[in-house]
Amino acid sequence: MSKGPLVSVVIPCFNASRTIVATLESLEAQTWPEIEVIAVDDGSSDATHSILTARTVKARAITVLAQPNRGQTVALNAGMRLATGDWFQFLDADDLLHPEKIRLQVNALRDRPHSLAASRWARFYGEAPGTVALEGADRDDWMPASDWLKREWHDGGGMLFPARWLVSRSLAQSIGPWNESLTVNNDGEFFTRALKRADGVTDTAGAIAFYRSGNPGSLSGRRTPEGLASYFRSLQLITEELDDLLRGDQRLRDCLGCMWMRFAYGSYPYVPDLVERAEATSKSLTSKGLPFDGGQTIRVVSRLFGWRAARRLQRLAGRA
What we know:
Blueprint: E1 7-13, H1 20-28, E2 35-42, H2 48-54, E3 56-57, E4 60-61, E5 63-67, H3 72-82, E6 87-90, E7 96-97, H4 101-109, E8 116-125, E9 141-143, H5 145-152, E10 165-168, H6 169-175, H7 186-197, E11 201-213, H8 225-241, H9 243-247, H10 250-267, H11 272-285, H12 296-305, H13 307-316
Parallel strand pairs: 1-2, 1-6, 2-5, 8-11
Antiparallel strand pairs: 3-4, 6-10, 7-11, 8-10, 9-11
Helix pairs in contact: 6-7, 7-8, 8-10, 10-11, 12-13
């Protein structure tokens, strides 16, 4: 007898043998019993495939799709097509979920299937989270998506990574597929579309996702011209998606303007043409400045000589 609606967990995997076992164990530990795992092996050359085929989650064999290496978003779309659940939990192969995460979010969305459920989250390094600082709202609350974005993006930051969310099948169908042309910040672009189409966002107290940082080969950490071009394009798409909301909401314009400046700061001097365009876009959205982040010396240099000089000094000190 079914104990509730089925949740499909879609995991894109590429050479994930070092981390995938812990990710699967965090799914086995979920207090929500009805879970299927769809893992897409995106051309791994390590033991990822054999690990996936040898394990079960909630007594169900993992559905494993092997494909040539075509990228994370292609893998996510392939996994969505195989999923049979009423709800979708997207999950990177190195991230973890708190045991209560899925149960709390399913219950929060039972009466709001066209809303999104967002969890708190924490960044961790190494093999296990340990003691971590949690980000996000520690309360059960519902709010319009634009208000949620202004809270999360108040300084141009915010993390919309896949593990935080639970999405109903009906809402996922209205969002459309993951953008297969993007390799960096594809999650930011996808979940901005989701937020735009959702009735609102439900924060769920006690639901926590853990984001692993410092992973060798992480796409999000690369400052290659190709990766930065993808990041730039994702911000263009996000800005276009929110165009009608931006026209009447200066606070949201401030948030997005700061986001464009964060891109400029982090991308200088690797892609100077995109940096110039990002700074111009930021100024077209807001007059609110984003202070350049750094120690006291860096901040003084930024005030006296401009943020580019401060950035060059950071690079001389070994900060990428």
